[in-house]
Structures are given as structure tokens and as C-alpha cells.
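Reviewers of the previous submission asked for a worked example of the structure-prediction workflow described in the proposal, so we include one complete record here. The input consisted solely of the amino acid sequence. No template or homolog information was supplied to the procedure at any stage.
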Amino acid sequence: MAFAVGPYFWFIPDQADMTIEVASENTRQLSPYKPDEWIGKDADFWANNIHPDDRYY
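From that input alone, the workflow returned the following C-alpha cells.
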């Protein structure tokens, strides 16, 4: 079973080179980027755009 609380989006990276192949249509709910702007970015694209005060890792 899967569920989410609050807004969310997802992306799928290419496992060979870890670039994003697919991003959900609702990426703009939590980021300023449209889905096509995610394509080809590295898998750390989202983490690199989180303000340092909001990072827990």
C-alpha cells in the first residue's frame, strides 16, 4: 500500500547514469521547475535546490 500526506511529486532516474528520465506532472507544486526541466538533470537536482536550513541529511 502507498499513500502520501500533503503535496508530492516523483521522478525516475536512469540507473546507468543517474539522470532523471521521467518526472510527474505536478512538480511545480513543490518546485519552480516544470516536468520537462527535470529531464536530464542528475538525481541530486532536487537535493541541491533545498535551502541549507531545510536539509536534514
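The chain is about 15% helix and 10% strand. We consider this example representative of the routine output the project will generate in years two and three.
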